[in-house]
């Protein structure tokens, strides 16, 4: 993967996924529904970790597979943010802000995937 970066930490999509994961952890800290909180945090972390794991596999085919999983997890985060807003676990403006970050991440992953 050296044609893109030397380390996964240098990938813009990994950096974006890290910001998203931290944002999810920050807003869900007070959520009383532990199961919901755990699921959305795991989905957010999954995007970040799958980008890293795929990068470390060192083949375009494997990396592409893990990028597909990361993109799916980003979609899961977006979907769960609607429910978090509906259930009043987080405020609307925070849900919208995080959905925007997740959508940008999904688009970035798709664009990066096309370059492999």
Textual characterization of the structure:
α3 (60-86) runs antiparallel to α4 (92-115). The protein is elongated. The chain is an all-alpha fold and 116 residues long. The protein is built from four helices and no strands. The mean pLDDT is 96. The chain has helices spanning 12-28, 34-57, 60-86, 92-115. The chain has one domain (8-115): 23S rRNA-intervening sequence (de novo design (two linked rop proteins)).
The CATH architecture category equals Up-down Bundle
Number of domains: 1
Tally of separate helices: 4
Secondary structure class reads mainly alpha
**Beta fraction of the residues?**
under 5%
Shape: elongated
What is the distance, rounded to the nearest whole angstrom, between the alpha carbons of the first and last residues?
A: 9 Å
Pfam families: 23S_rRNA_IVP
Protein name: Four helix bundle protein
Outline of this structure?
It contains four helices and no strands. It has helices at about 10-30, 35-55, 60-85, 90-115.
Characteristic terms for this protein:
single chain; 116 residues; mainly alpha; de novo design (two linked rop proteins); 79% helix; Four helix bundle protein; 23S_rRNA-intervening_sequence; 23S_rRNA_IVS_sf
List the helices and strands and how they pair.
Layout (H helix, E strand, L loop, with lengths): L11 H17 L5 H24 L2 H27 L5 H24 L1
Helix pairs in contact: 1-2, 1-4, 2-3, 3-4
